Amino acid sequence: MSRAVDRAELVEANAEFYAAFEAGDLDRMSAVWADGPYASGVTCVHPGWTRLRGRDEVLRSWALIMANTEYIQFVLTDVEADVYGEHAVVTCKENILTAEQGAGNGFLAGGSMIATNLFVRVDGGWRLLVHHGSPIMNDPEER
C-alpha cells in the first residue's frame, strides 16, 4: 500500500470518529475504536476528565456524552497525520460549535481543543486506540 493511500485512509478514519460523535451514533463510535487484543489498552482523556482506560469504560463515557449533547459540530484544522507501520498518529485542532437543549437563540458555545489520536491497523483498517483532547489555553495564532 502506498504511503499516500495509507495517510488518506488514516485521515478518513479520524474524520469518522468526529462524524460518529456529531451524529450521536454509539454504534458508529464503537466501530471506530479498537477491540479484541487492544480492548484493554483503549484510552481516552476527555477535556477536563481523568484518564479512562479500557474499551468498555471509554464507550460508556461516549454514551453518556452523546446522550447529553443535543448538537455538536467539528471543523478540523491543522490536521497532521503520520503513519509508523501498524500505528499512526493524527493531531488536529477541533473547532467546536455546540447548542443546548431548548436554546431558541442558536449556537450557545464555541471553542477550540487540540487533539491527539493514536490509531492501530486492524484487519487492514485504522482503529482508534487513544484519544486525548485538551483545551487550548493560549493559542499562539491569537498573539
Automatic annotation (TrEMBL):
Name all SnoaL-like domain ranges: 12-136
What's the superkingdom here? Bacteria
Q: Pfam families of this UniProt entry?
A: SnoaL_3
Which InterPro entries does the protein's record reference?
A: NTF2-like_dom_sf, SnoaL-like
Q: What is this protein called?
A: 3-dehydroquinate dehydratase
